[in-house]
Amino acid sequence: MSGNLNHEQDLISIVTPTYNAEAFILDTVKSVQAQTFNNWEMIIVDDCSKDNTVGVIKDSLKSDSRIKLIELKVNSGAAVARNTALLKARGRYVAFLDSDDKWFPEKLEKQINFMKRRNIAFSFTSYEFMDQYGNNTGKIVRVPSQIDYAGLLKNTIIGCLTVMLDINKLGKVEMPNIRTRQDTALWLSILKKGNVAYGIQEPLAMYRKVTGSISSNKFKMAKNNWNMYRRVEKLSVLHSIWCFVNYAFNAFKKNI
């Protein structure tokens, strides 16, 4: 490991919700095991998968005690799965990685160094897109050097798979129990308190575009974003419209 800043005490808890991810979860786990920073725990919460996701995870558990599996009894959605992991997290730092995405090997090391050098509580990174089969598409989402609450209301630039939080600085965090956009709602709740999220321009993660996923349905995502403005953030209709127009433009830019 290169460029360490006394990380021995700095455990990173990785939050991974899963549902019917048999085809992808092993790649996700392997990308964590390949990290140059190795003081981590990976808390995988399975949301009642109907395929062999749990079996694949249990095989990984046998050879790596840092991986922990929690099986929910009732299908409850990503927010409950992530919050279940957050309650069990023991690390000073929390990172998020969904069960079909991957990290580059130096992701954790570079990000924790970045945060410690700047004494910041919330960071995120640029990331690349891969197709359903893991092939790099050449598309990169470039992030700004920083973003605040007002900026994030008009954007979806923070990829959940890239976020790292310092729990010592922020206190325990929890995602609102909504079916989608719960990650963005959490980032907004953190930034609303006056915090700023800082971006690393280097792509350190890969986001998988899976056919038929919730995030692949742009109409549903737009509707969910509108509901988040009105029901979670309690914005006025005019403010919601202003944010939504900007969100739609930025989302279009991100995906072309």
Produce a short descriptive summary.
The protein is an alpha/beta fold and 256 residues long. It contains nine helices and ten strands. Strands 1, 2, 3, 4, 5, 6, 7, 8, 9 and 10 form a ten-stranded mixed sheet that branches.
Class of secondary structure makeup: alpha/beta
CATH classification, class level: Alpha Beta
Got a strand count? 10
Instruction: Look at the structure and name the CATH superfamily.
Output: Spore Coat Polysaccharide Biosynthesis Protein SpsA, Chain A
Report the uncertain regions.
Answer: 1-6
Largest sheet: 10 strands, mixed
Please give the alpha-carbon distance between the first and last residues. 36 Å
- The CATH topology comes to Spore Coat Polysaccharide Biosynthesis Protein SpsA, Chain A
Number of continuous helical runs: 9
Task: Quote the average pLDDT.
Answer: 90
Note the beta-strand portion. 15-25%
What series of H and E elements makes up the topology?
EHEHEHEEHEEEHEHHEHH
The shape, in one word, is globular
CATH architecture: Alpha-Beta Complex
Percent helix among the residues? 25-40%
Family: Belongs to the glycosyltransferase 2 family.
Domain Glycosyltransferase 2-like: 13-129
Organism: Rossellomorea vietnamensis
Keywords: Transferase
